[in-house]
Amino acid sequence: MSAEATDPGAPIRRRGRPRIDLRRLGRVALLGPVSRDRLPDAIGHVAEAHRGHHPDADLTVLHKAYVLAESSHRGQMRKSGEPYITHPLAVTLILAELGAETTTLTASLLHDTVEDTEVTLEQVREQFGEEVCYLVDGVTKLEKVDYGAAAEPETFRKMLVATGDDVRVMSIKLADRLHNMRTLGVMRPEKQARIAKVTRDVLIPLAERLGVQALKTELEDLVFAILHPEEYEHTRALIAAASPGSAASGDAGVTATEDPLSTIAENVRAVLRDAGISAEVLIRPRHYVSVHRVRIKRGELRGTDFGRLLVLVGEDADCYGVLGELHTCFTPVISEFKDFIAAPKFNLYQSLHTAVVGPGGAVAEVLIRTHRMHKVAEAGVIALGNPDAADGVSAPQTAEPADGERADPTRPGWLSRLLAWQQSAPDPVTFWTTLRADLAEDREITVFRTDGGTLGLPAGASCVDAAYAQYGDEAHSCIGARVNGRLARLSTVLSDGDTVQLLLAEDATSGPSPDWLDHARTPAARIAITGWLGAHPQDPQGSYGSRPAGRRPDPQPMASAPSGSDRSADRAATVVVDRPDATVRLAGCCTPVPPDAVSGFTVRGGAVTVHRQECPAVARMQAAGRTPVAVGWGDAAACRVTLVAESFGRPRLLADLTEAIATADAAIIAATVEPPSEQRVRHTYTLQLPDAAGLPALMRAMRDVPGVYDVSRAQHPAAAV
């Protein structure tokens, strides 16, 4: 199958294969059994398509499955008036065209037998084995008699759980929904709309995540035609008008003899031929929804917007060879370049994307991939077959990752997360709502843990999401995080490739703040937080459990600092300034001490303020045209510095910190301790050291105090100068 622009009412076919009349095949199926030495005509097309992908496939089991399906469905009719057997035949043909292996096709032929006939799962198991039985059971709907209004969400939950063990369950479901959508015209309009909305919200995102673009694109067009008929008709008219040879093509700016995409394709073929690169260059028409999106984005369609060039080569290295030739011989549109070979999408998709400018300024988008990449891009996990079979996988297997998540490419990270959070959503309504919201996230990022593992998260996820993804309910006691080595708030949004270290409090009884719900994007985090808050209702003082809610209170002073003039003179005693009689102040925003590299700037009143060179205030003053003053450190070794200690709250913490400071021969000039917030305490100390060289040892001693997880030099916003 291909994702080309087609009439959603007509099935997509492989080039060169005649149209299959399923109504006629249904009548043939009703004529009864045929001789045992050949397959029935009704399944012959399936066998032909299957042998095209698997030349050595044993078709005996397909014959056996067809006989059971035909006999069990005999006498049943679809609402369209066709014999019911045409439906499992059509579903199986869709999967055969995509390259599904024999077991999947066998289960596809039988997928409605247990649900709609007298055939039992035990009979399927006895005749076809445990594997086929599992697939058939996975796609069998739950009865409304037993589940009522919850039947649909619980059926999807059942299928998703089964998909977690064998992704072929969802492959059959997607093909089943595609054929049902093709024949939805016999339903009442309101039922068409309901089915189309579920397809849009659940099945299409699943097809996208599983990489089955051939099914996803046709499903999108079918849903588009039902839910947005006016926009669909307008788009169809634009595509028809732009087709070369169309009577209306002149209205769209394209004549029968003028097809800019064909012209560029010929030029590309010539360039690759001259370069000695063996490649197949195809024009790949966009499907209706894709054309509609381009029109919305650009406002007016260009002649090349109705399709893209697809370049197929033999080896991965050839892809980059093609890219180099195109960027050398054509003007590239650099902003359109994307490398999904070096960094594949989370749905297994690999390709190089670029755009080049052809004759007359026409811009053509180009996709470059190998034939194997193209197969996976079209069929996704269906092209991978059975991951447990030695010869059933097209994509290479990798070793088991360090974090224990399956390396099986048919069990991606998003599916593992989905299976995990659905266990915490026993309510069908919560599950159904959360599932739709989860599937609406169409991009994924990978963040690295400090222990060498990785976390797959949806784009826009925060440290809160990372905490629950790594620790589950233990993340209730998370008090902070380091992102790329720097302390960060739990609300920090993570980017692809970030390294994150989550900090947990020692007090396991603490819990999340209601504010966390504002930063949680993943269902697992939201369900866990909501559950904890529900079990720990807010008390009259506005706190939850043992954790105070809301903002961090103002810091409370422990000791008073010296007056500003005394402090400045004392701290600046070791600074040498190349300006006689100038008053010198050490900046409070960066608290420089020997042997820091420093810069000085004249401020109001003629005083010189000294900053560490990496202080942001230095860059701001230089940008404002301030001339730096030469400053340096004198012979005196004593210094004053402000340190900030971040720690978990615990008894005797203050005593242990002051003891560590005193042991380093430092004098505490002033100190403040902020009240605990989320089990985290911040201490700020202004210290007088007899020798600046002892500062690193002092900071190490403070970090060694149990419960202290960070000690840093004070960094405060600089006041206007």
Could you give the count of β-strands? 22
- Strand residue content: 15-25%
Task: Give the overall shape.
Answer: globular
Low-confidence segments, ≥5 residues, pLDDT <50? 1-39, 247-257, 389-408, 539-573, 717-721
Distance between the termini: 69 Å
Mean pLDDT: 79
Major beta-sheet overview: 6 strands, mixed
Q: Percentage of helical residues?
A: 40-55%
Structural class of the helix and strand makeup? Answer: alpha+beta
Question: Helical segment tally?
Answer: 26
Q: Please state the CA-atom Rg, rounded to the nearest Å.
A: 34 Å
3D structure, described in words:
- Residues 1-39, 247-257, 389-408, 539-573 and 717-721 have low confidence and may be disordered.
- Helix 4 (86-97) packs across helix 11 (168-182).
- The chain is of the alpha+beta class and 721 residues long.
- Strands 1, 2, 3, 4, 5 and 6 form a 6-stranded mixed beta sheet that branches. Strands 8-7-11-9-10 form a 5-stranded mixed beta sheet, covered by helices on one side.
- It is built from 26 helices and 22 strands.
Short description:
This protein has 721 residues and is α+β, with helices and mostly antiparallel strands. The protein is 40% helix and 16% strand.
Give descriptors for this structure:
disordered N terminus, five-stranded mixed beta sheet, 721 residues, single chain, six-stranded mixed beta sheet, disordered C terminus, alpha+beta, 16% strand, 26 helices, 40% helix, 22 strands
